[in-house]
Amino acid sequence: MKSAVENLTPTRVKLNVEVPFEELKPSIDSAYKTVASQIQVPGFRKGKVPAKLIDQRVGRGYVLETAINDGLNGWYQAAVQESGIRPLSRPEVEITEVPDPSATDGGLKFAAEVDVRPEIELPDYAGIKVEVAAAESSDEDVDKALDELRGRFGTLKSVDRPAADGDFLTIDITATIDGEEVDSAAGLSYQVGAGTMLEGMDEAVTGLSADEDAIFDTALVGGDHAGEAAQVKVVVKAVKERELPEANDDFAQAASEFDTLAEAPRRPGQAGRRIKDRGAGR
């Protein structure tokens, strides 16, 4: 088999492939066996029909077409390996020449256009210097980072009061459309004000205490009824608030690489290293 690469663009090539009859013949022999197993001829068992009789019944052209269809991917893959191109897409193949059905020789020619990975030559970057400005942090930046870190180590404590912004709730929800229940879920965890569930949820749960409920209208966002208007009943099972650990030396040792809280702000950008990722406890 012979193959040649024609560059069409920096990212697309045409692969011209020639398959000689010697390499095409095994596929033709296999195609005869395939066709023989598909037809019935009186006097011959299925799969044992001679090639000459198959030529008479279905035509050698059909056999060649079967052989080419079955072998085309293998020849293309072999040409890719031979040429060394690195395809990025499925090829667009055009058969340009097939053997004459009446002859017992002659090869196959086809062209395959395909997107390939471009060859990129990097310039000499030795000696290039890049200056990076030193990171600076204000007291407000340090306080914000510290509060976020304390939040990751916070724990949730149940409280006996109405839900407020930032509280964590355990809720059950039931959705109905025209009075018929279409979806429900129990024991969900939701933070008031997160806006990550249903539109109208934050307004409905704000002010509710444990074992109280509310009903609101919204559009469903998932399931078989996504996008449909529904009435949702939400029952608050528990209201919890997050308790943050005290910002002291013990916390600094538990949450970072520093031994004291006073040491941490002196090295901006380092306070987040070696943090134990716990998230809010429940």
Short structural summary:
The chain is α+β, with helices and mostly antiparallel strands. It contains six helices and nine strands; from the N terminus they run E-E-H-H-H-E-E-H-E-E-E-H-E-E-H.
Can you offer a commentary on this structure?
The chain is of the alpha+beta class and 282 residues long. Among the domains are: 2-115, 2-Layer Sandwich (Alpha-Beta Plaits); 161-243, Chitinase A, domain 3 (Roll). It is built from six helices and nine strands; from the N terminus they run ββαααββαβββαββα. Strands 5, 6, 7, 8 and 9 form a five-stranded antiparallel β-sheet that branches. Strands 1-2-4-3 form a four-stranded antiparallel β-sheet. A hairpin with a 2-residue loop joins strand 1 and strand 2 (12-19). Helix 1 crosses helix 3. The chain is elongated, with a radius of gyration of 36 Å. The model is unreliable at 266-282 (pLDDT under 50).
